[in-house]
Design goal:
This protein is an alpha/beta fold. The protein folds into two domains: about 150 residues, Response regulator (Rossmann fold), CATH 3.40.50; about 55 residues, Winged helix-like DNA-binding domain superfamily/Winged helix DNA-binding domain (Arc Repressor Mutant, subunit A, Orthogonal Bundle). It is about 55% helix and about 10% strand. Strands 2-1-3-4-5-6 form a six-stranded parallel sheet, sandwiched between helices. Strand 1, helix 1 and strand 2 form a beta-alpha-beta unit. Helix 4 crosses helix 6. It is elongated and about 65 Å long. The two termini are about 40 Å apart.
C-alpha cells in the first residue's frame, strides 16, 4: 500500500483533483508544492532522513510567475528526482495530448503512469494508483489510443527534417540543397509519405507531424 506521496502542481484547481484522490485512497502523507525546486528539495530531505516518498505526481508545465527557479518544468523534475531516488514511482498529471511527447515519457523517462487533466481525471488517478501499487504501469484508454497513433508509421529523422523545412517555408530545391540530396529524393520521400496517409498535399504532412508533437 502506498503511504507517502509528493505532488508538484501549480494550479489550485488541479490540486483539488489530486487532494480528492489522496483522501479517498487514505494516503497517510501527501505533500503539495507549487514549485519544482521545493518539491525536489523535499525529496532530498526525505531520502536523507531514510523516509523517502514512494510516488511523485507532477505536472509537466509550470507557469512563470517571476519566482526564480532552477527546475522549470516537470521533465526536469522527474530527471532530478530519479537522480536522488531512482526507485521513486512517477505519475504525470498533465493536459499534454501530443502522442510523441507522451510516448517519450514512457520510453525515455520511464514514468509509471500518465493521467490527462480532463473530465474523469479523479477516476483515472485512482486507477493509476491501483496499477502502480501492483507494480504495473498505468495506461488510460485515452493514452493507449494516443500512443497507437505514433505506431502506425515510424517517421525517420530524414522524413522529419524534410517536413520541418517545408513547415518553415522552404521550397523543395532549397531542402535538397540543405540536406545535400537530390530533388528527386525529396519528391520520392514526400510521395511515399503522402501515399502512406492518403494525403494529397504536403501541407497535410506538416499538420500530421505537428499533431503528433514531432515538429
Amino acid at each position: 500500500m502506498i503511504e507517502k506521496v509528493i505532488i508538484a502542481e501549480d494550479h489550485e484547481s488541479s490540486n483539488l483533483s489530486v487532494q480528492k484522490v489522496m483522501e479517498d485512497l487514505r494516503i497517510l502523507q501527501s505533500d503539495y508544492f507549487y514549485y519544482c525546486d521545493d518539491a525536489l528539495n523535499r525529496i532530498k530531505v526525505a531520502k536523507n532522513a531514510d523516509k523517502p516518498y514512494e510516488v511523485l505526481i507532477t505536472d509537466l508545465y509550470f507557469d512563470d510567475d517571476g519566482t526564480s527557479q532552477t527546475i522549470k518544468d516537470g521533465f526536469e523534475l522527474i530527471k532530478a528526482a530519479r537522480e536522488v531516488q531512482p526507485d521513486i514511482r512517477v505519475i504525470v498529471f498533465s493536459s499534454e495530448n501530443k502522442p510523441a511527447k507522451i510516448k517519450s515519457l514512457y520510453d525515455e523517462m520511464h514514468i509509471d503512469g500518465f493521467v490527462r487533466k480532463a473530465r474523469h481525471d479523479v477516476k483515472e488517478l485512482k486507477l493509476a494508483f491501483e496499477a502502480i501499487t501492483k507494480g504495473d504501469r498505468y495506461y488510460s484508454r485515452e493514452t493507449s489510443l494516443l500512443l497507437k497513433q505514433t505506431k502506425a508509421y515510424e517517421f525517420t529523422d530524414f522524413d522529419i527534417s524534410i517536413i520541418r523545412l517545408l513547415a518553415e517555408g522552404h521550397r523543395q530545391k532549397e531542402i535538397s540543397d540543405q540536406l545535400e540530396c537530390s530533388a528527386s529524393t525529396i519528391e520520392k520521400t514526400l510521395k511515399k509519405l503522402r501515399d502512406e496517409f492518403g494525403f494529397l498535399k504536403n501541407e497535410q504532412l506538416v499538420l500530421k507531424l505537428k499533431d503528433a508533437g514531432l515538429l
